[in-house]
Write a structure and sequence with these properties.
Elements lengths: L1 H6 L2 H18 L8 H27 L25 H16 L8 H35 L5
Helix pairs in contact: 2-4, 2-5, 3-4, 4-5
Keywords: Membrane, Methyltransferase, Transferase, Transmembrane, Transmembrane helix
Membrane topology: Multi-pass membrane protein
GO molecular function: protein C-terminal S-isoprenylcysteine carboxyl O-methyltransferase activity
Length: about 150
């Protein structure tokens, strides 16, 4: 079980979903749309997702808590990007996936985005939220009531 927890990491899930989208884009291409608008959208999604992840990690490090899954938080972070999303790192992952799908014109792979979000919720978010509820009680309940899980 310890080995599974070691490889059960969000970046690896993201890589799997990115690889699936890339395979679809290369092996089963559909109407490629490369316009300045799609290029801009892809760039904003990828860049914004990476920036969101970086800002969230910095915030967590400043608050001396872990950003690693499968570990209890030492401190509760509710300000900054965490005031807008309970899971800004996972949201950033989904944005990067969506941006790459747009960049590659892998339109059938759009179905992978909600599937990725479901996997991340099931594999990580539900466990993390249970731990936060257990560790921080009413403080977590208040934050969860006013802050959406994804966006």
């Amino acid at each position: 079980m310890a080995f599974w927890k070691w490889i059960d990491l969000p970046p690896l899930w993201l890589l799997l979903f990115v690889a699936l989208a890339r395979v679809q884009a290369v092996r089963l291409p559909v109407g490629v749309i490369n316009t300045p608008v799609t290029d801009l959208l892809a760039g904003l999604l990828i860049g914004g997702g990476l920036l969101l992840m970086a800002v969230a990690v910095v915030q967590m490090r400043q608050n001396r808590t872990t950003f690693m899954p499968h570990q209890h938080a030492r401190h509760f972070v509710t300000n900054g990007v965490f005031a807008r999303s309970r899971n800004p790192i996972y949201l950033g992952d989904a944005m990067v996936l969506l941006g790459l799908i747009v960049h590659w014109s892998a339109w059938p792979s759009l179905v992978l985005v909600p599937l990725f979000m479901w996997v991340i919720t099931d594999r990580f978010i539900l466990e993390e939220e249970a731990w936060l509820r257990e560790d921080f009680g009413p403080q977590w309940e208040q934050w969860a009531a006013r802050t959406r899980r994804w966006l």
